[in-house]
Amino acid sequence: MATTFTDVNFEETAIKAATPVMVDFGAAWCGPCNAIAPIVDKLADEYQGKVLIGKVDVDACPEISKRYKVRNIPTILFMKNGEVVDKHVGSISEGDLRKKLEALL
C-alpha cells in the first residue's frame, strides 16, 4: 500500500527519504487517478525497501502541489536525494511506470 504524503509529513517522509521516492499526485474525483491507483499500490508493495511510493491528494495538500507546480493530475514525480529527477503527467501503464522506477534505482 502506498504511503500517504501530506503537507505536514512530506519534508520528513519524502524529501529526507533514504531511498528514491515516487509521488503520485491525484484526487478522489479524478478518473485517470483512480485508474492508476491500484497499480501504484501494487508497485508500492513490490518496491518496498527500494523505492518509497506514496500519494498526495491535491485537494487536501495544496502546499505540496504548489511547491512542485502540479497543474494537471495525475502527475507523478520521481525523486532522488530530495530532488525531482523525472516527471510524468497523465495516465501511465504499469509497464511504463516500472521502467521509470527501475531507472531510479
Structural class: alpha/beta
Measured as a percent range, the helix fraction is 25-40%
* Global Rg: 12 Å
Largest sheet: 5 strands, mixed
The unreliable regions are none
Mean pLDDT: 96
Give the CA-based shape.
Answer: globular
- End-to-end Cα distance: 20 Å
> What's the SSE pattern?
EHEHEHEEH
Number of strands: 5
Strand order in the largest sheet: 1-3-2-4-5
Describe the protein's architecture and organization.
The chain is of the alpha/beta class and 105 residues long. The model has no long low-confidence stretch (mean pLDDT 96). The chain has four helices and five strands, in the order βαβαβαββα. Strand 4 and strand 5 form a beta hairpin. It has a five-stranded mixed beta sheet with strand order 1-3-2-4-5.
Outline the fold blueprint:
Elements: E1 3-5, H1 10-15, E2 21-26, H2 31-46, E3 52-57, H3 62-67, E4 75-80, E5 83-89, H4 94-104
Parallel strand pairs: 1-3, 2-3
Antiparallel strand pairs: 2-4, 4-5
